Structures are given as C-alpha cells and as structure tokens.
Amino acid sequence: MTRERLYLYDTTLRDGQQTQGVDFSFEDKTRIAAALDRLGLDYIEGGWPGANPTDSEFFARAPRTRATFTAFGMTKRAGRSAANDDVLAAVMNANTPAVCLVGKTHDFHVTTALGITLEENLENIAASVAHVVAGGREALFDAEHFFDGYRANPDYALACIRAAYQAGARWVVLCDTNGGALPHDIRKGVKAAVDAGVPGARLGIHTHNDTENAVANSLVAVAAGARQIQGTLNGLGERCGNANLVSLIPTLMLKEPYASQFEIGVTQDGLRSLTKVSRLLDDILNRVPNPAAPYVGASAFTHKAGLHASAIAKDPTTYEHIPPEAVGNARFIPMSNQAGQSNLRERLEAAGITVEKGDPRLALILEDIKAREDRGFAYDTAPASFELVARGHLGLLPRFFDVERYRVTVDRRYNARNERITVSEAVVVVRIGDERLMSVSESRDESGHDQGPVNALSRALAKDLGPYQSSIEDLRLVDFRVRITNGGTDAVTRVIIDSEDGQGRRWSTVGVSANVVDASFQALLDSIVWKLLRDGVEPA
Amino acid sequence: MTRERLYLYDTTLRDGQQTQGVDFSFEDKTRIAAALDRLGLDYIEGGWPGANPTDSEFFARAPRTRATFTAFGMTKRAGRSAANDDVLAAVMNANTPAVCLVGKTHDFHVTTALGITLEENLENIAASVAHVVAGGREALFDAEHFFDGYRANPDYALACIRAAYQAGARWVVLCDTNGGALPHDIRKGVKAAVDAGVPGARLGIHTHNDTENAVANSLVAVAAGARQIQGTLNGLGERCGNANLVSLIPTLMLKEPYASQFEIGVTQDGLRSLTKVSRLLDDILNRVPNPAAPYVGASAFTHKAGLHASAIAKDPTTYEHIPPEAVGNARFIPMSNQAGQSNLRERLEAAGITVEKGDPRLALILEDIKAREDRGFAYDTAPASFELVARGHLGLLPRFFDVERYRVTVDRRYNARNERITVSEAVVVVRIGDERLMSVSESRDESGHDQGPVNALSRALAKDLGPYQSSIEDLRLVDFRVRITNGGTDAVTRVIIDSEDGQGRRWSTVGVSANVVDASFQALLDSIVWKLLRDGVEPA
C-alpha cells in the first residue's frame, strides 16, 4: 500500500521569533535551520526579508538546505501593482525557491485593520500570488484568520482562498491566527475549503495553542483533507505558541491511522534525533527544557508512582505508550517519598551500584533524601548529588579532600581610568590526607575579566587539588540556576549546577543555603567529587 | 433552554503529586484544596489514605469543602473479601463522602501485572464498588488503561466497566492511563461504553498529555457523551501531565457549543480568578509560571509583532480570541526589536509617561534597549528596569544617589563549637548630593542567620540611604532568578529580581554581569530607584 505524502512546514525562525523573550541572532538562525534540515522537514521559513536587519542578513547569506527555503511576507497593498510594492519587492529579492504571503480572509479585518474594500483585498491576493508565480517561485498563501472569517462570512473567506488557489498558489494555508478555534471548528473549515474547490492536496493548516488544542487542530485538519502542517520546534510562537512539530512528528510516524496512511520527510533515524533537536533549541534560547514536554521531556518516561515503577520493571509497555528510544529519550525512575525501594535500587543500578533487595541501608537512604528535600534540595533534577548521598550511606564515597574554610571577596570600584570594575578573589584552605593547602585566586576568564565569586572559588579549589588536578582539568560549568525555595520554614537559595567534561559527560548537582555563594560552593564540590568518582580516581 | 450539568473532578492533589519534583506538604494540600473549592470544582481528590504519611494526615484533618471530597484507592486484591482488604480499609476509614477506586480493564495488565484471572478481576471490581456503596459513599471507578484495553480486547474492557456500573458506581471514569490515545481513539471508546449500556451521564474521562492531546481528548469525550472531566491545575501530573483544567474551564464556559450546552460549577467570578489560581499553584511549587500557558500565561495576550500590536490598538478582537479580563489576565505589549514605536508609546503610557508620536527620543530608546538586550538584558521580563532606561533618555530619571564602591565578603569556616557557619559582610560607599556615606552591614535574617552577599549589600545600602529610608523600608526581595546567557560573544550572568512593597506593588528588575554579585547589585539598585520613583520621593 503506498502512503500519501504529508508535508511539514517549519516556521520556528519566523512565527517562533514572535515568542516573548525570543530574539534570534544570525548565528542562531543558521544553527536552527541546519538542525531542521537534518531532521527532514520539507519547508523552512527563514523570516521576513526587509522586516529587520537580522532577517535581511539571514536571507542575504541564506543557508543551503535540502528543504525548500521560504521567505515570508504579505500580499501587496491596495492602490499599487504587485511589482511596485516595495515590501513585497524586498521579499522577492531574497530569491528563495518559495515565497509565503499572508493575506486577509476575514471581512472584518479587511475593512477595520486594512480599511479597504472586500473587492480590493481579493484583487491584492490574486495579483500578489500571480506575481510570485510569474517570478518562477513556488507560491504559498497564508489565509490569515480563515476560521474566524469562515464563521463570520463564509462566502467571502472561501472567495479569498479560491482567489489564491486560482492564481496558482501551490499551498493555501488555513490559519487560525488568534488561536481560538476548537477541533470541530477546524474540521468544518477545512471541509468547506475542499467543498469550495481547493483540493486537500493543496491545503495547509497553521494553528496556535491559545486553547491548548494546536496539535489536535493540526491532526483534525489532516483527517479532513489538508496535506501540509505548519508548526514550530517546541511549539515556540506568538502568545501561547504554534502547533508543536516535536509532538506532531512522532504521532504522525508512530500512531495509527497516520503511520499507515502517510509518509513524511522524517526518517526513523531523524525521529531518534528528536529529543536532541528539541534540547538544541532550548540550548540556543538558554531555556530550561520543559520536563513535561510530550515525547521529548525529561519526565515523559519518568515513573514516579511506586506501582507504575514496579510494573515497568516487569514490562515497559505497561505504562509507556511508545518506547522512549524511538524518539531518542530515556526512561527515568526518580527518587521521592512516593518511590519505593525498588525504584531506589534501579537508580543505584544505573549509577553502577548494586544493592541487595531488602538491604536496611535502602530505607536509610530514602529517609535521608526525604529529609534533605524537605530542607530544599531537589534530587530529581540533580542525580549526581543524589548518587553522592547514597554512596555516603553505602560506604562507597571516598574522602578525597576536606574544605577547612574559604573566603571570597567581591570589590566594585572605579579604576585609575575611571572605569567601573569588579574584582573577585577567593581563598580556600583544603586538607588532603595529612597535607593542609592554602591557595588564593582571582576570578578571570581567558581575557582576564572578572567572572565572579563562584569562578574565583572554583579556580582556587583547582589550585589546591594538586593530586586530582588532571582529572578536573576538563571540568566545565555549563549552567547554573538559582531559585529561592523553602527549606523547612525559612526561605533558602537552591543552586543547581550543570557540569560537562571533555568526554561528553554532563551531570547536575545541587547546593542549598541561605547564602547563594555557599549554595554554589556546595554544588561545585559535589560536581568535583562526582567527576573524580567517574574518572576512577583513587583518594590520595 | 436548560443546560446540561457537566462535572469537574480535580486530581491535582493525587495525580498531580506524581509530577517529577512535586511533593506537597500538608499545608500545601490544604491551601490548594481551599483554592479548588473557591474556584467551584465539583470533586476534589485529596490523595490515597494510607499510601504515605502526608496523605494520611491530610485525610485525618480533612478540609471542609463544598466540593465532594474524595479519597483515592484501588480495588481489593484477589483471594480476600473487600471488607478484609487492609489497603481498601485504609481508604474507607478516611470517611470521605466519595471514594474513587482504580481497577484494571486491560486484559494484558490483569494477567501480567496482577497475575490473576480475568474473572477474578471482574469480581474484584464488582465487590469493591459494592463495598463502597454499602458503606454509604458515592462510588467512582477509574477504569485504568480503558482505551488500550478496548483496542486489545473490547469485550473484556466493556465487561469491566459494566461490572462497576452494575455494582452501583456513580461514575465510571474511562482512563487513558499511558496517555497514548488520540482524539479519534477516545471518541470510539466513549461511544462503545455508551453502546455497552453505561449511560453518558455516568461516564467520566481521565486523560494524560503524552501526545499533547489531553485537552482535546477531554473535549471529544464530552462530545461523545461523557459528563465528568478529570484533570489538574496547570496540567500537573505524572510524565507529561494530566488534562489541564485551567485550559478546559474557559473553553467550556466561553466557547461554543460547550457554553450553550453545558453548565459547570464555576461562575464568571470564578473564571476571573483563574489566572490567580494558576499562579498560586506555581507559587506553592516555587515554579516559574509558564508564560505560554493558554488563557492564563503572561504571554497569552502579549502582542509582539508590530502589525498585530497596531491592529490591537484599533480593536483588541483583531488578534485576541477572548477578552483577557474574562480569565483575570491582561494584555501586554513587550519591547523588542520587532516592536515599533507605537508599542513603545503604549508601554510608556502604562508607566504614566506620555510621549508625543514621532518624538525622536523614541528611536533612541528602542536602539538602546536593543543594544542592551544584545548584551544579555531581558526587558520583557523586567519592565521596571525598562522604565528606568526610557526615563533616562527622556530626562525623567532623577539622580537619587551614586554608588562609589562596594566590597562584599563571604567567609565560611568552623566556629568554636565546630559548627560550619558562613558570614557575609558588605561595605558600601554612596554619595547623596554633597554627602559621602560609608556603611557596613552583616547579612542576617530576623534570627541572626546569614542570608548571603546580596542581603548584606541590600542592608548596607538601606543604612546609607538615610533620606530615602522611609520609602524603602517596606521593600522586600521576593524572588531572584539567575541564568547564564550570552552578552555578545561572552557568557554573562543575568539576574532578575522580583520585589514587593507594603502597598501590594510587585515589580521586576534586571542586572547583567559576568559576576553574579554585581548583576544582583544592579538589579537591586534598579529596584530601589523604581520604588523611590513610584513613591514620588524627591531627590535629596
């Protein structure tokens, strides 16, 4: 049985850029486009040439993609020809193989927002699409507010999309611009478009998540006949975001009837890279990945309930709707007061530590973890620190060194050239075996600039840890996150540090204190100890 | 036309507790239950009596609710009577008006996870439900894995739910336990249940968000006949979460055909409290609220695109699917390189600053904001700092004081009693007019405990700001968030500080530096200056 082709159109770089707090640089756009292309998407919308300097630069130095690289713009304004519209000209001049133009299809917007006649708008659509086609490009028409327009004035909304189709648009994309449509509205609108003479094979769907139905709305549109889905990575996008391609892709490839009925450009290998692609975007945006993200979130295959965890041990399909490996994700059994000893044993096993069933120390570890979490620690997000606590109880935590004291100073002042500078300095006193080592360091990056107290402490520590230095040389602090939380009745600061080493390991540790520097120091110490353990270093 | 009653069942305190990293205390549960009850939900599931000490305590000191307070448990085990099952007894002994028991309906789980015969499982369901009814309680049956079970062995799955119904269950709740079902699967399953003799008025739906369809799955179940929806606040819950009641409630109340067809327990006043209720849960969990959350997120009515923002100014319905006030949310026009001068003027207007259209300083402000954001500042999330930047350009920023220098020290050591302690001390030199003031402070909370360098700086500053002290006396740091981000090519630390005062104002400021202490200090200074401005203090 041959499967029908379903096309995926990514607008992360355009509609995704409308997300509050998101502002892609040229380099960001280039990296994301490459990732989208590797993933196997059919269209990559790069932005709006002429709208801002970054987008203009991005099109001037456009990436070479297997996917159809697409420029976004809007239909020409009334009172001039398509060839004489400078906004449209900037879009055409980007010389992309495809051009997507947004135009109005809701009568209210034509008269209120544009202030032109309904007839003028129809002509703008037809002339603009024809201009793109005449320029030898693939033309797409984004039918703005189509579903609201169809509800308000069905004849006019349908006339608009017919005008685009008849002018030669390869795709007429029905947009739920305000995001308020529900699945039954989408089904009705898509069916009406097909009945009005635009074939499903020429219809696309563009939804927003304002009622949390963007994914379902995309699926129902496909069921009603549409053959192109527009969306973004991680559901980025204006307001509540666009349809999340990261959720849609596995559903289309792994779930019936989609998997049997349709073929998309993403391969099974591409699917296995999905978790990585999703995290890459977060990384570029400096966002903490959403642990609850469908398919790719850190919690998506996490089994906290004791009953679930024990059934999973017998057969993972009991509580997993797909195998996590299929999307490049992994199963996780977290620690918590709801988890039983069997969860704990699995977690330790994953860290290479085997403990017999019924070992009384298991209960002690669970109790200690619980007590520490009550004080503000968060071991679910800091598995490396969890491992150290467990090792402590099991007698598997070598004493590499002790910190006797430290002092860190931050000075801000004006220097001789009247420039405002900060200087951070740390003194650390460490005991390794019988030796007492005192060392001092200023904080500095490669160019000698101050990096703050945690960096100063880390550098002073690295000096002091003489025998261990070769192991910690490639340790790098990648991120640290600070939150005020409750430790019992008092507010405390929780610091989570993500570290990396030259072997590609990445681990997270936690520190808790009312003092942000001390909380960071604790997490830093845990990170170093965990690294020494993983490298198999013997205590001096 | 009378509307049919649709019931909402909240499981935030039970299934929501399965979220990775969530661990409610007794006080948390009490606060959340009160909020759920005020909101107007019909059922509040409090937890599983006997499963852990917190849940047992919560039921022992149960809140008085207008909603039907419900205990969760599981059907009796095979080989003993319902009366002799100690797990079930603990649930019954909680003495709640309703009891919800989960039981298997998927043959594979009966034989694999439970290891009993299909017949025994049917008997366990019937006997357990009958036991609850005989105890004078309202009985609910959670049909675990119903949709997977219906696909695998439809006759058996239907036999299970009929057994519960015939034994007197008020509600038979069809659960998509693994979260893998799509809307068409849900429609089919609910219809089959109705056809098998369980009336829709006795059917509930319980979905999970593993394919990002939990909300759509709940809606389609109602369309197919179900009359109870189970879900959680903010979609909390195991793995990817449960159906999000915060998204479902406004859809059911404001969107057709639901609004005309159904009545729920939430009033329009309750609906207007929704944003607050959603934030309260985040507050209890110490989570940053999801800005993209449908209806209640900070970005849900944020209009970043310049074209959208100018249309909104003409008529908000052009780009808003509902009025934000209906759910207690608000419109927001952020600053960014995509925003035009009209957005900027609106933002300034909101801060009480009127600037004429076309004022050349508007372009200067936009440029400066853009340049600062390139260095790592984030003004969308720190509107108070944005206001100060704009005021600087407009000549509306009085010079209250200058900081000549500061020095902050953190010492960690062991005291005479061999306790590990930290001491933080700050020296700040400030000029106010012609006066040069130097002061020093240790960090300490009310009980004298160290609170770290930012607290020490804040206390030293407060001492120095003599003439302004009465104004900043009620200033309180509520939260601070730290992220590593990119300032141009270098990694820098961005600190966002949320402050509050005695008049109920809450504002956010930002500081950026490679040094976390200095970034905090900048945000702290902005916070103080903004407060002095808002209080109308004259510079000394």
Q: How does this model look, in words?
A:
Two copies of one chain form a homodimer. In chain A, α1 packs antiparallel against α13 (274-285), α5 runs parallel beside α7 and α6 (146-152) packs across α7 (154-166). In chain A, 53% of the residues are buried. The longest helix of chain A is centred in the C-terminal third of the chain and has 19 residues, at 516-534. In chain A, β11 (402-414) and β12 (420-432) form a beta hairpin. Chain A is of the alpha/beta class and 540 residues long. Chain A has three domains: 4-266, TIM Barrel (Alpha-Beta Barrel), CATH 3.20.20; 359-400 and 469-540, 2-Layer Sandwich (Double Stranded RNA Binding Domain); 402-464. Helix content of chain A is 39%, strand content 21%. An eight-stranded parallel beta barrel of chain A has the order 2-3-4-5-6-7-8-9, surrounded by eight helices. Chain A has a three-stranded antiparallel sheet with strand order 11-12-13. In chain A, strands 14-15-16 form a three-stranded antiparallel sheet. At the A-B interface, α4, α9, α10, α14 and β11 of A face α4, α9, α10, α14 and β11 of B. β11 of chain A pairs antiparallel with β11 (402-414) of chain B, so a sheet runs across the interface.
